[in-house]
Specification:
mainly alpha
Length: about 280
């Protein structure tokens, strides 16, 4: 089990990072956690349409060439995957702002929605890495033998050997990539929010293009130059995203303070004197 510690550490980091980020935003910007949940639902909802669309284009209809050894095919595939992710996720963000989170128009609210949107992706990947590491670690120690068919044991053994042979630095690129992705999601959430804050639909197009560029660079680079160069490029995009985040920063709206009510005037008879008749009537009022 101990040999798999980089995967366990990576899993914990990918799950914890968005939750810590959400806690920090809620504390510093005084926004509700419900927006984090709305962001999570937004991402999941976008994938309900995004994943089948990609499958139809790439697998069912085979409209995009997938022989990535040909440079032109790799460029086309990278652009397609980038645009499909950008369109589905950013349109989903737009619809969320338009019909669900109608009151989310502040910098902190945009950050919280972005943290939930990118956070659920990080959490799901972290859970997948953790569960996979637990299962393969158990199999490597002779446990769970009855679960794996005998004809598949060689495949599992090869996977275990590959995981154990991977450098620690390579394994921990996963959490680092999630940091870069979260930075981008925060920026994208604020960019889409500008459609409603500034009443300019062009911000949606900008968000789609920024998202498409990020994903296209990742797909092209990892197939051409490998994971380390890819993460360096994504880190540069993440720094630019942080710049966008602070460029769009605005103060949180201040709740107006209610003015205190004036003190109540004393109630008494018009002439200020109490007659016997007035005292007699007060017994029954």
């Amino acid at each position: 089990m101990f040999a798999f510690w980089p995967y366990f550490l990576g899993s914990i980091l990918m799950i914890a990072m968005p939750l810590v980020l959400g806690w920090w935003i809620a504390k510093k910007r005084h926004v509700r956690w419900g927006l984090f949940f709305i962001g999570m639902v937004t991402f999941v909802g976008s994938q309900i349409f995004h994943i089948p669309f990609n499958w139809l284009i790439l697998q069912r209809w085979q409209l995009i060439p997938q022989d990535t050894t040909v440079l032109t095919n790799l460029i086309i595939l990278s652009i397609f995957l980038g645009l499909s992710a950008g369109v589905f996720e950013e349109v989903a963000r737009y619809l969320t702002y338009r019909f669900w989170a109608k009151d989310a128009r502040s910098w902190g609210a945009g950050l919280m929605l972005g943290a939930g949107h990118g956070g659920v992706e990080s959490i799901l990947i972290g859970l997948s890495v953790g569960v996979n590491a637990v299962v393969l670690a158990a199999v490597s120690q002779g446990q769970l033998q009855g679960i794996v068919p005998p004809e598949q044991m060689s495949v599992v053994d090869n996977q275990v050997s590959a995981m154990l042979a991977a450098p620690v630095g390579l394994v921990l690129l996963g959490p680092l990539e999630r940091v870069f992705a979260l930075s981008a999601h925060l920026a994208l959430s604020l960019m889409v929010m500008q459609v409603f804050v500034r009443r300019q639909i062009g911000w949606l197009a900008l968000a789609i293009l920024w998202h498409a560029m990020l994903d296209a660079v990742a797909v092209f680079s990892v197939s051409t130059w490998g994971p380390y160069v890819t993460e360096a490029l994504l880190g540069a995009v993440a720094l630019a995203s942080v710049g966008i985040i602070f460029w769009l920063r605005t103060p949180e709206p201040i709740e107006p303070e209610l003015e205190p009510l004036p003190p109540a005037a004393p109630v008494g008879p018009p002439d200020g004197r109490l007659s016997e008749e007035t005292l007699e009537k007060s017994k029954y009022s």
